[in-house]
Amino acid sequence: MSAARDAGARSPSLDQWLTHALGDDGPSEAGQAAAKQSSYCFPSTRLLLEYRRTIAARPEGEVVQLIERLLLPSCALGIDHRRSEGATLAGLDGHPAAQYRRRLAQWRSGASTALPWEGLTWLIDLLPFSPRLAVEIIDAYLLVHGGELPDERAQGLDDARELILARFIEAPAVGEGGLETLRGLRPRELECVVAQLYARMGYGVELTPATRDGGRDLIARRSWLGAAEHLLVEIKQVGQVGVEIPRALLGVVISERANKGVVVTTGSFSAPARAFLAANAMEGIAGVELVELLNAHCGRGWGRRVPAMIDGALARWTRL
Length: 320
Known about the structure:
Blueprint: H1 14-21, H2 29-35, H3 45-54, H4 60-70, H5 78-82, H6 85-89, H7 98-109, H8 131-145, H9 151-169, H10 179-183, H11 187-200, E1 204-207, E2 218-224, E3 227-236, E4 240-241, H12 244-256, E5 260-265, E6 268-269, H13 271-279, E7 283-286, H14 288-298, H15 306-317
Parallel strand pairs: 3-5, 4-6, 5-7
Antiparallel strand pairs: 1-2, 2-3
Helix pairs in contact: 1-2, 4-9, 8-9, 11-14, 11-15
């Protein structure tokens, strides 16, 4: 979050700014004051944090509309008209924003009608089911174009990222799609939900038999840039996981020559269990972290789809 936007004139109230940003300014004095503020980003960190705190209670349609308003559309910006042709064309080889510079040069010369800035508003279609991917796209866009964008436009993208995290990824305190949903499942049902999570993260998955599972509930594999990843996942529906569970899983990991063992629980890990996981390059996923992974990769509404997730996992990935 930038401190630069917090300098200068006093910002309007959150409601005043939202009315302006969402396109419903009135003739009132408050509306005119809000209209002096940019709608490309929150005018202050205070207003962003205030909106973040109340985002769970707001209508999803409003949140998505605001995120779309903060995203950059396909466009030409004022800065594009001010950039000289020499600066636009100079040093393109290896320039991180070379394609933008080429589009700008072609647009300015009339050789192309394509606008200089490729827009991001299309990523609204990734919500609510693929919010993690939406965040990664914003991160990549800022990595390439952040240095070329006007400050308020870059800040707006960062604000949109914050709202996606707050609304669609961070765990709800209570209610559907929270820990209560997971803790209400039978052990085999929880295994199915975790299998769906790993599938959405890009793994090929296999559920082991419900009994005599060989010390692991889920086998997950994927290849990336020539490197093969082979995970063994043990899933526990318990209050607290002790050190004996990761210790037993490590033996299976060594025996099967897997890359890593992962212990997933709706509860927590004891201090000795956490120490053992860290010492042996194993991963532990517990409680709220599991909910946030499901939100990020399966969408915030995964709680409503649990029966279908279970049926699908049993049909596709069960080892006979």
